[in-house]
């Protein structure tokens, strides 16, 4: 027996390389070509999304949530995340909520109350973040960064907006100094006028915008009819008050109520411009004001595996950039390339895009500017049909994107979420499909290879 062991040792020695060589790392295949050089081989350190849920999105002031308190809206999704994953609420290191319109201190208190409604102990902290329309996505990025830094192991990124209660208003008291700074003055432009600026400056026609709106409603209606949103929407039982009789009725809301399946170009063409007499932005080709909330549960891959939780997606990169405030809608055209490059990828590596349809003008421009395949963008509709509850949109997009990528399987590995931001910014994040068994199982087939990394050419 001893001779056999010695023979094995000799054979193994012959199989060893004569000079030290680096071990093949799974992480080399886990993202883009250049990413192999700045990402570690610690596959288990990936920051992953294990759950992403949202309420339905309802029309502000006349939709299903018009009589629902903001803290209740957030409480519903926080509770759903815990119940559906069986994560111990006391293990959550922080809850970060993106929210925009309400006074900061007031909304922060409401969000803290929502956490208690959802069953979180008083030991779990909470804070809010406001980067305008990207607040929900910023919350996801903040939680991912905190987990990566080791501040805590599990975090929840959420988003909330109740535009029934808090409407978009102008700055109440403006510093006279603003008159001497053109770009500072442009920060105060109504968002609708920035949409008109984009359309005029970049030649986006009224017909282009109306067609984008028709497509948004058509795709959203098809997605709702086929049950695609059921994976991300949690049914909410709440009350609604009849405005004429004052009577309350208990209802359960499980579908977005802003989708209009019969929207057509003829109807949209009859709508008058909403922000400028000779403009092209109308109520029909702009996002809807809405009420809604969403929540995303993040942790390290190793911890998710330990807990037996399915991995919905992997957070790969995030970028926020500044642009000219007068055309703030162009933000995604600047942010998407930055986020994609940060992930070590190229635009043609991205299989799906969720670009927020704040206005059809900016949405159409960004697709054309980046030369994106329209068949890859907002495949289940966007904010023109679904609505845009400002602080919640980013969290909503995470669930929509990752569930669609899961349905498509190997044909959809990387996805991007992006939006423009009031006062002149854009934000974007890259996600990888998360249902792979290991780092290599969904590697793309290389059609041609000269055996050199593109970074070495």
Automatic annotation (TrEMBL):
Its EC number is 2.3.1.16. It is an enzyme of class 2 (transferase). InterPro entries: Thiolase, Thiolase-like, Thiolase-like_sf_Thiolase, Thiolase_acyl_enz_int_AS, Thiolase_AS, Thiolase_C, Thiolase_CS, Thiolase_N. The keyword Acyltransferase applies. Pfam families: Thiolase_C (PF02803), Thiolase_N (PF00108). Pathway: Lipid metabolism; fatty acid metabolism. The keyword Transferase applies. It is found in: Peroxisome. GO terms for molecular function: acetyl-CoA C-acyltransferase activity. One of its GO terms (cellular component) is peroxisome. Gene3D superfamilies: 3.40.47.10. Coiled coil: none annotated. Residues 47-302 form the Thiolase N-terminal domain. Keywords: Acyltransferase, Fatty acid biosynthesis, Fatty acid metabolism, Lipid biosynthesis, Lipid metabolism, Oxylipin biosynthesis, Peroxisome, Transferase, Transit peptide. One of its GO terms (biological process) is fatty acid beta-oxidation. Residues 310-433 form the Thiolase C-terminal domain. Belongs to the thiolase-like superfamily. Thiolase family. This is acetyl-CoA C-acyltransferase. The gene is LOC105112837.
């Amino acid at each position: 027996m001893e001779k056999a062991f010695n023979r094995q040792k000799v054979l193994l020695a012959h199989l060893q390389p004569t000079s030290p060589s680096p071990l093949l790392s799974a992480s080399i295949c886990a993202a883009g070509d250049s990413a192999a050089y700045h990402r570690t081989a610690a596959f288990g350190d990936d920051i992953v999304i294990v759950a992403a849920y949202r309420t339905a999105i309802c029309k502000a002031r006349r939709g299903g949530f018009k009589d629902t308190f903001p803290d209740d809206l957030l409480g519903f999704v926080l509770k759903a995340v815990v119940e559906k994953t069986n994560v111990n609420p006391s293990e959550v290191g922080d809850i970060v909520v993106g929210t925009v319109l309400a006074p900061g201190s007031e909304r922060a208190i409401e969000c803290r109350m929502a956490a208690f409604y959802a069953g979180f102990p008083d030991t779990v902290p909470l804070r809010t973040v406001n980067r305008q329309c990207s607040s929900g996505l910023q919350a996801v990025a903040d939680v991912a960064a905190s987990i990566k830094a080791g501040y805590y192991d599990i975090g929840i990124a959420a988003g909330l907006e109740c535009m029934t209660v808090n409407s978009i208003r102008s700055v109440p008291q403006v510093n006279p100094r603003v008159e001497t700074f053109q770009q500072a003055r442009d920060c105060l432009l109504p968002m609708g006028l920035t949409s008109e600026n984009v359309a005029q400056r970049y030649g986006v026609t009224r017909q282009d915008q109306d067609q984008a709106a028709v497509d948004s409603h058509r795709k959203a209606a098809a997605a709702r009819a086929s049950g695609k949103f059921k994976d991300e929407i949690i049914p909410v039982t709440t009350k609604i008050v009849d405005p004429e009789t004052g009577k309350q009725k208990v209802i359960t809301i499980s579908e977005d109520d802003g989708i209009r399946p019969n929207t057509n170009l003829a109807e949209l063409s009859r709508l008058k411009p909403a922000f400028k007499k000779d403009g092209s932005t109308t109520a029909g080709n702009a996002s809807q004001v809405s009420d809604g909330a969403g929540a995303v549960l993040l942790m390290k891959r190793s911890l998710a595996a330990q807990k037996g939780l399915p991995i919905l997606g992997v957070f790969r990169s995030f970028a926020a950039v500044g642009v000219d405030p007068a055309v703030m809608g162009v933000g995604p055209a600047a942010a998407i390339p930055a986020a994609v490059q940060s992930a070590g990828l190229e635009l043609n590596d991205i299989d799906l895009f969720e670009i927020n349809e704040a206005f059809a003008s900016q949405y159409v421009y960004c697709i054309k500017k980046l030369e994106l395949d329209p068949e890859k963008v907002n495949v289940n509709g966007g904010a023109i049909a679904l609505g845009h509850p400002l602080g919640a949109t980013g969290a909503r997009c995470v669930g929509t994107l990752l569930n669609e990528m899961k349905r498509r399987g190997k044909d959809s590995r990387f996805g991007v979420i992006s939006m423009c931001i009031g006062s002149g910014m854009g934000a974007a994040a890259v996600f990888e499909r998360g249902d792979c068994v290991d780092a290599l199982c969904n590697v793309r087939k290389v059609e041609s290879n000269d055996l050199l990394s593109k970074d070495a050419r």
